[in-house]
Amino acid sequence: MGRFSKVRNRGVARLSIAAWRLFTDLDLSEAKEDRFDSLHACFTRELKPGARPVDPDPAALVSPCDGIVGECGEIRDGHAFQAKGFPYSIAELFGSGAAAEPFRDGSYATLRLTSSMYHRFHSPANGRVEHVTYLSGDTWNVNPIALKRIERLFCMNERASIRIRLEDGHPLVLIPVAAVLVAAIRLHFLDMLLHLRWKGPNEVPCDARVERGQELGWFEHGSTIIVFAPAGFKLCTHVRTGLRIRMGQALMRFPGK
């Protein structure tokens, strides 16, 4: 599917997109371009300037992507949930107990991207990307049915742990999780494409300044991003399972704000 999606032929792309629309709610009205050379170009499309305004409240940690909120809430003794009754260890997800320790009693939000959504993701706040851990793995489907049937699914799939140090010193982690048809993650601040041929874990130190709302990269097709914040951060009152959220909308609030 990945190879077919990158066939550069506008006729093939037009027919493929038309077929795709029969099964999804694909909306290209916000796309920067109105014609695509390949299906892949449509998957990873940019949006028109201003299509995703960023919440102006400096006390808000904004959503890094468009998505549907899955399980979310407080991390309990180092464990989060992929679905009700299906806990997983965040140390296993991160690939390291030391990396997960600052988030042991923090908060998290799971954001699922459907195939038709905008697939690029952005920085939730100002800070610096300090480190990326890439872990190779499977590409199980991450839809709600699979999450209720396969234990520790997020911990088995290909993923990257992106560690960000916010301006006030708090750590933040974004974990893009790959899935079926999604076997590559592009990060702008790294001159590499993370994909299944990278046998993990791979530790990639980096030092990249990022601004709130700045594009960090994209999925080749679409999947899930899990946001982890340390103790003191709380989900915004409107955030709940099933909510459709857009990049730039408030997701969490900084401690004491």
Note down, in words, how this protein is organized.
It is globular and about 50 Å long. Strands 12-7-8-9-14-5-2-16 form an 8-stranded antiparallel β-sheet, with no helix packed on it. A 4-stranded antiparallel β-sheet has the order 6-13-10-11, with no helix packed on it. With 257 residues, it is α+β, with helices and mostly antiparallel strands. It has 2 domains: 1-51, no CATH class; 54-253, Distorted Sandwich (Glucose Permease (Domain IIA)), CATH 2.70.70. It contains 7 helices and 17 strands.
Keywords for this entry:
single chain; about 260 residues; alpha+beta; Glucose Permease (Domain IIA); 2 domains; 8-stranded antiparallel beta sheet; 4-stranded antiparallel beta sheet; 17 strands
Short structural summary:
Helix content is 15%, strand content 34%. It has 257 residues and is an alpha+beta fold. The protein has two domains: 1-51, no CATH class; 54-253, Glucose Permease (Domain IIA).
What secondary-structure arrangement, pairings included, does this model have?
Blueprint: H1 2-5, H2 10-21, H3 39-43, E1 60-62, E2 67-74, E3 79-83, E4 86-89, H4 90-94, H5 97-100, E5 107-112, E6 120-122, E7 127-135, H6 144-147, H7 153-156, E8 159-166, E9 171-177, E10 184-187, E11 193-195, E12 202-210, E13 215-219, E14 224-229, E15 234-235, E16 244-245, E17 250-253
